[in-house]
Design brief:
homotrimer, about 180 residues, five-stranded parallel beta sheet, 7 helices, 5 strands
Chain lengths: ~180, ~180, ~180
Amino acid sequence: MSQEVESIETEITRMKAQLQAISGKVPENKLSMVVFSGELDKVLASFVIATGAVAMGLDVVMFFTFWGTPVLRDKKKKEPAKDMMSAMFGKMLPKGARALKLSKMNMGGLGTAMMKSLMQKKNVASLDQMIEMAAELGVRIYVCEMSMDLMGFKREEMIDYPGLDYVGVAKFLEEAMNSRIQLFI
Amino acid sequence: MSQEVESIETEITRMKAQLQAISGKVPENKLSMVVFSGELDKVLASFVIATGAVAMGLDVVMFFTFWGTPVLRDKKKKEPAKDMMSAMFGKMLPKGARALKLSKMNMGGLGTAMMKSLMQKKNVASLDQMIEMAAELGVRIYVCEMSMDLMGFKREEMIDYPGLDYVGVAKFLEEAMNSRIQLFI
Amino acid sequence: MSQEVESIETEITRMKAQLQAISGKVPENKLSMVVFSGELDKVLASFVIATGAVAMGLDVVMFFTFWGTPVLRDKKKKEPAKDMMSAMFGKMLPKGARALKLSKMNMGGLGTAMMKSLMQKKNVASLDQMIEMAAELGVRIYVCEMSMDLMGFKREEMIDYPGLDYVGVAKFLEEAMNSRIQLFI
C-alpha cells in the first residue's frame, strides 16, 4: 500500500470518530415541554404549541408537573378513597381541563367565561378539544410521579390518554436533552 | 482504479451523506423567545436578553402572544372602531409598554413606580428605550395572529417597528427549531 | 501523485472544514436555566431539574435574576448598611429559601406550610437541602449583577455557595448558547 493511501486512511478514521461524536450531540426532531402552570391561558398555549409542532413533523413530549398535574384529572371519574390531606388537595385544585381559570383577568370567573365564549366564536378549539387532537396526533404525555404523590392523586382518576405515562424528572430530561426545542411553561 | 482507492471513495461518499444529515439538524446562531407574559418585569427581562443576545452576534426573534400582545400597542395611536367585546378587552388590557405593572409588589402602582424610578437612577434603560434599542439592533418581532384576533386588536393600533410581522405559531416554531436558545417567558 | 488520490485529498480537506464548522455549533452536555421567579414551587422545580440533570452527567448553570435573587440571601447573615430604598426592598422581599411562598394556594401561609409538611412526610428534600445538594453536585450558580444593583443587595448578605459568581446577562447567554437544554423559570 502506498504511503499516500495509508495517510488518507488514517485521516478518514479520525474523521469517522469525529462524526460519531458529533452525531451523539445533535438533537432529534423533537420538542419537549414542562407544563408546570395550571392556568387556562398557559395550558392552552402549551397545547397550541404541541399540536402545531406535531403538524410540522416534530415529535412532541409534554411533562405535566406541579400545578399542571390536576389539569389531567378526569371530571367524570369517581374520586378514589384518599387520606385527609390528599382529599383536601383534591378539592382545592381544579378537576380537569374545564375547571381551569385565566392567570389574569379571571374576575371571579367572568373573564374566563368571556375568553371561552370568544374562543368559540372565533373558531379556536377548546382545551378539551385540543387535548383530544393532541392524542390523535400522537403528542406524548408524561405525568410527574413526584407531583402525583405530593398532591395525592391516583392514577385511576386521570384522563384516558393513549400512552400517558408516569415518570420522574430524569426521564423528561433524557427527552429534553435530545430535543431541538425545550420550553418551561 | 485500485481496490484501495475504490473503497476509500465509498467511505467518503458515506461520510458526506452523514455530514449532510447532521448539518440539517445543527441549530443556527439564533435565539427564539415566546413573550407570553405581559408584566413589566418579565417583558423587561425578555428585552434585556434579546438586546444582549444580538450584541453577542445572535439573530433574535421574539414572538408576542396572549398577554404579551397588548404590550406592543401604541398609546399615541387612535383606537380603531371595534365590536363591544374587543372594545372591552382594549380597555382592560394595558395600552403599551408604559402601562405595564410588576408581577409582584405592584402595590396599587407604588411598587411599579418605585422600580421605574430606581431603574432610571441606576441608569438601566426603560422598556420604551429597550424596544427602540431592539429595533436598531435588528431584533425581529412577530405578533401572534390568533391573539390579535381573540383580543380584537387591529394592526393600525400597534407600534411602528421595523419588520414587525403577524404570524401563526408554525412560523415561530420554524425559527425556534433552528435556534440555539429557546425561551418561554 | 495520481489524479485519483489528489481529488480524494481535496474532498477530505473540504469535509474537514465542514466538520470543524459543525463542531462549533453542536451544544455541550449542559443545561442552562434562568431562575426569574422567586416562588417556592418554581424554585423547587428549578432545583429538582438542576440536581436531576447533574445526576445524568450534564453540566448545570443556574442564573438567578429579578425575584430569584433574594432567594439566595442568607437569613443568618447580618444585613449590611443600605440606603433607604435598598433597605425597603430588603425588608419586602423574602430573606432566603425558607421565606418563600407558593405561587398559588398560599392562603396566608397555610398552603405553603401544608406543602412543606407534605414534602417532609413524603421524603422530598426541602429547598435548603436541595441547595446544599446542588452545591455538592457541582451545580454552578450565577447571580445577575443588574438585579443585585437594582434591589440593593450586597454580596456579603448572600449565601456561601462554592463558586457562586456575579455576572451580566452576556455571561449567561454564552453558557446557554452552548447548552443542550435552556429553560426560563
